[in-house]
Amino acid sequence: MEKDTIRITAIGFYSRFIEVNEKMLKDTSIHYFKLEKRTYDLPTVNIYELRWQVFKSEFMETKVEEDKTAKRISNWMANLVPSDELRMIFQGARGPGFSINYKSKAEKSRIKVAQLERKYALIAPKFNDKLITNLTGLQGKEIYKFLQFCNFSEEFLIQSTEYEIIEQILTRWEEYKKRAPKR
Questions:
Q1: In 3D, which of 17, 6, 30, 45 has the Cα closest to residue 130?
Q2: Closest Cα partner for 147 from 130, 172, 121, 164?
Q3: Is residue 48 over pLDDT 60?
Q4: What number is the average pLDDT over the span 101-126?
């Protein structure tokens, strides 16, 4: 019989590897394995949420210069059709009309920030630096090297449960340790 090993892991404890032998397989009683508690010494914590809020606040309050393209479109429209006819065209919901769906660069940027913020709100609670450190013991720049190795898609992070993400982190961590150069 080849030697099989069972890995037992839990957050806050050291992983334990148990070799399975024939005696264990034949024994039908319940086996108990005690895990050793693990503590983590954390370096200075970077509060990314605060940085994000400061960036968002500064970005949303930034005054942008007048959008010249929108002004040119308005001038062009005003000169294209006589003003009497233009009033008839823009009667709103009561009559026929048309509108130009033009968004300035600043407005497009605000929309993009809002989309990123919605994604961040879905991902951050279940996937963050603290979780990576708790599961792997990695800190600082090492976390980002590991995250590049993992290369999780946004779709996976948004649609998966925290448990599924933890499983994938642990699986990738084992692969990462095998590939990483020994120190």
A1: 45
A2: 172
A3: yes
A4: 81
**Mind listing the pLDDT tens digit for each residue in 29-40?**
787 888 899 887
Distance CA 73, CA 65 (A): 16
Query: Which residues, in sequence order, are CB contacts of 63 under 8 Å at separation 6+?
Result: none
**Residue 19 domain-assigned (yes or no):** yes
Does 59 map to a domain?
A: no
Handedness of CA 142, 130, 171, 8 (dihedral sign): positive
Look at residue 123 and tell me if it is in a domain. Answer: no
φ, ψ dihedrals at 139, nearest 5°:
-140, 160
pLDDT of residue 93: 45
pTM of the model: 0.43
Q: Which of 6-15, 71-80, 115-124 has the lowest mean pLDDT?
A: 71-80
Q: How many domains does the chain have?
A: 1
Output 138 or 50, whichever has higher pLDDT: 138
Q: Would you state the structure tokens that stand for residue 139, as one six-digit string?
A: 């800190």
Q: How far is C-alpha 46 from the geometric centre of its chain's CA atoms?
A: 16
Domain presence at residue 32: yes
Domain that includes residue 10, residue range:
1-39
CB-neighbour burial class of residue 54 (10 A; exposed 0-12, middle 13-18, buried 19+) = exposed
In terms of Cα–Cα distance, which of 70, 52, 154, 76 is closest to 107?
A: 70
**In whole angstroms, what is the distance from residue 56 CA to residue 69 CA?**
25
